[in-house]
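Before going further, learn to read the protein records used in this course. Taken together, the tokens spell out the fold as the letters spell out the chain. A record is reproduced here so that you can trace the correspondence yourselves:

***
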Amino acid sequence: MPAVTRHIGLSLGADICWPLAFEQILADAKLELKIGKDVVSFACERVAIEPFMLQPGCKYDLVVDRLTHWLAIQREWIKKCILMDGLYVYNNPWSVQSYEKHSSYCAMTALGMPVPPTMMVPQKNYEPKPDLDYTLKAYARLFDLGKVGAQIGYPLFMKPYDGGGWQGVTKIDDEAQLRDSYEKSEKWLMHVQRAVAGFDLFVRAVGIGPQVRVIKYDASQPLHGRYLPDRNFCSPEDEQVMVDTCLLINTFFGWDFNSVEALRKDGVFHPIDFANPCPDNQVNSIHYHWPWYVTSNLKWALFCAATRRPMRKTLDFEPYYAIARKDLPYREKLKGYARIARERLDAEKFAEFCQKHFGPLEEAARNWFRSDRCRDAIRRKVANMYPAHEVDEFSTRFFALVQKYVSDSEKESRQ
């Protein structure tokens, strides 16, 4: 049988721990998959930032992208390789570039998702431009910020329409705070959004391809304490709602890897932040859940590369809107959206592929997460993030949480 190699590129920013895990587990697994008439193996390397020609030519079959959200040259290289070389890349780069938090709120509200009441307000200050004064004098309308707050309702949040990492987010309890926050917003274009006061559960659903993990979340904690290790904290039906919600959002926008924040109140999940196509994936933030991320990332990357999964270059919203127009309860619509999502992600084919081919990968992953190499990867990340006197403490803490995940997952697999 012909031997072929699929080439995977890792497009990285300040990523330290997970690329080491990805590379070393893949090497340990020594995969040679019989697919059709071929025996498929894999090579992996890190993508360099360098000049590139517009003509065809890309050595990768798939790129796991963690950089184009932040760095324009890599985004333009990725676009070129998709258009000219048939590259498959995590997260449609045109969608990442254009569908920020504001437009994602609009689209999901149109599909019936219970997004809290949200309003965009004109920015306080603008970048100087030759025609700015004329434009504002002719068309900018004075508005009463107090009426905006009353219409949305307190408490509320003011936050950038396209921000990330909680930057510029302010919780506001009254009109005085609203006016003060607006005065300090400078040139940011802001949303005001009603808070989901009285919620009883905060979750993040993280999706990688058709794989979704629902995680209990505590935004009041420092970064290392937000992703809680709790399991079975909600009913199977509630968990399925969040799985379906994540799959809907990700496939609507062409995102392979994204996270969805939602608050549950009176039995209803209200998504509040879900344009996150470069979400937390480092051991210092997701710790207990990190082995799930690394293993799921490997499985989806290898499946896509091995099967030559075609990149969806354009977005087709109409099948979702066709369901939205039906006179159905939202939960029934969501089930319909999720069926489209699973079809687009080849979920059944992926599950069969994992069952047939990835036993050695899972064994290699379990062994690696228990190894000194894992401990070293964690320590490298911690040393890059924490002061020297805290490195031992947090390295030990995160490694212990990884061990707990491996033990818990083994127990679950035996049940």
Notes: The longest strand covers residues 3-11. The chain has a mean pLDDT of 94. The radius of gyration is 23 Å.
